[in-house]
Amino acid sequence: MLNTPRRRLLAALVALPLSVPAQGTPPTKPVRLVVPFPPGGNVDLSARILAPELSRELGQPVVVENKAGAGGTLGLDAVAKSAPDGSTIGIASPVNHLAAPSLYPRLPYDSVKDFTPVGLIASVPMVLVVGSSSPAKSVAELLALARSRKGTMTMASAGSGSGNHIVGELFQDATGTQLVHVPYKGSAPANTDLAGGHVDLHFDQLSSVLPLLQGGKLRALAVTTAGRSPLLPEVPTLAEAGVARFDAATTLGLVLPGKAAPDLVARLNQALDRVLRQPAVKEQFARLGAEVRPGTPAEYAEFIRSEIARTAKIVRDARITLD
């Protein structure tokens, strides 16, 4: 039998935590939350809502790292090439994750194989907006105007291949209209020209256009989601305005590098789920015009597959290229 001092020493050793975690356990060092876009946009703001709450759930600092460039593909590529140990996670957007395979002929990552879905985060509706001086006061009036102008009405976007552009192409396909695409370097200059009457319409995220709507510089004709936005309760959906079954939004998701261990994915998904269900977090997203989307990794994986296919068809049919 062990004597008392040796028995006490053995008990103390057994009680010590392991210094190196087993594969799949929560991260034991600061976590990088990679945002593939500059500070201040919807993706960055979403990350900064999540980071402190995920930090509390994981028991580790979660540090937001903005790694912008190449339409968001630079940052997402950094996530894909990181170790799948939970120390690096990223936010994937429709442009750099779902549309990228169709837009970039030499994309440095595979949007399915090189990432492990953790869960959806939130969806932000887009808004069909016109300048305050536009004669169109409704979607029906806008469509009548577009048809009378016979392919000369202009549609701004945040750039060729942007989410704004893709939704605009989807709108043209759904309504049988033909618009002249005018790409800008971002939403801000597009909305400035729209307010000044230099272009006719724009599809943009609610979080971007809300101050301009409140200031009377732009007019909202419809939101692109299946349900109305609580921030614009008087604005109809496109479906309500006569564009049947139209449903599009900017939906963000949390991803790990590919081949992450299933138990790590499960733990991170559970942490994300608890964060997204917090009333204070839901309220912060609601102020951006966003609706939280808690769910399982399997549901997010199916969303990725279906949206890549849907986006590829839009890009192909509209012959969208990166100008």
In a nutshell, what does this entry contain?
With 323 residues, the protein is α/β, with parallel strands linked by helices. The chain has helices at 4-15, 42-58, 73-80, 94-103, 139-149, 163-175, 187-195, 206-214, 262-276, 279-287, 297-318, and strands at residues 31-35, 62-66, 88-92, 115-131, 154-157, 180-183, 201-205, 218-223, 249-257, 291-292. Strand 5 (154-157), helix 6 (163-175) and strand 6 (180-183) form a beta-alpha-beta unit.
Features:
single chain; globular; 19% strand; 10 strands; disordered N terminus; alpha/beta; 323 residues
Describe this structure in words.
- This protein is of the alpha/beta class and 323 residues long.
- The protein is built from 11 helices and 10 strands.
- The chain has helices spanning 4-15, 42-58, 73-80, 94-103, 139-149, 163-175, 187-195, 206-214, 262-276, 279-287, 297-318, and strands at residues 31-35, 62-66, 88-92, 115-131, 154-157, 180-183, 201-205, 218-223, 249-257, 291-292.
- Strands 1, 2, 3, 4, 5, 6, 7, 8, 9 and 10 form a 10-stranded mixed β-sheet that branches.
- Strand 5, helix 6 (163-175) and strand 6 form a beta-alpha-beta unit.
- Helix 2 packs across helix 9 (262-276) and helix 4 crosses helix 11 (297-318).
- The N and C termini lie far apart (79 Å).
Layout of helices and strands:
Layout: H1 4-15, E1 31-35, H2 42-58, E2 62-66, H3 73-80, E3 88-92, H4 94-103, E4 115-131, H5 139-149, E5 154-157, H6 163-175, E6 180-183, H7 187-195, E7 201-205, H8 206-214, E8 218-223, E9 249-257, H9 262-276, H10 279-287, E10 291-292, H11 297-318
